[in-house]
Amino acid sequence: MPETLTSTTPSDAAAATPPSAPVGVTQATVVKKSAPKSDYKPADVSPQRRVQRSYAIRLWSIRHSRGLEWFYARFADLFLLLHPVWKGIGYSRVEAPVKFVEKRVKGFMFDCRMCGQCILSSTGMSCPMNCPKQLRNGPCGGVRANGNCEVEPDMPCVWVKAWEGSRNMVHGDAILNLQKPVDQSLRETSAWLRVTAQAGAAKDQARAGAGA
Ligand code: SF4
């Protein structure tokens, strides 16, 4: 059912503006408390469900970021070695099976959201797309004193965890690199294949240049 738009006077707007947060209380809590009460509670964001999710695998991956960095580098090398195979079969033909595997493996390990432009190696193996605000360049100003998220109080802030994970990694300082905004047109595509195809094309070009 479409919501009806009504004109808002300045006094309406002032009444709708939540009070500013007292010290020690996040703005999200103030906004939530001042919101009109209703019988509809979306199942997906119930506190109970949030408590039940422990983020255990995601946090394990961050704790083992150094080992995963090593593994990922080998895996990328292997994928690049197979570039002639992917190219021979056709990248578009192998996309569906590779994406199927990528989605499940990264979904299990990192709660991957398939943004298609993976930056896990620059974020301590903590997927930034799990940030409710989908920030790609560090945390917002609302991180709680216990290091948890302003919006999801039971979830550790993905950027606090990203910093911790990055400190274990050999190339962890990549977290300081400025990331581009998410290109939404790449959603649900394979980051593995994209990176491999780009590296493979660069390799082919270099080889052609050397042979000329
Ligand atoms: S950065 Fe994107 S591709 Fe990488 S794990 Fe997160 S959602 Fe998935």
TrEMBL record:
Pfam families reported for this sequence: DUF5981
Region named Disordered: 1-24
Species per Swiss-Prot/TrEMBL record: Mesorhizobium australicum
Organism domain of life: Bacteria
Low complexity: bias regions: 1-18
Domain Methylene-tetrahydrofolate reductase C-terminal-like: 93-184
Identification of the protein by name: Methylene-tetrahydrofolate reductase C terminal
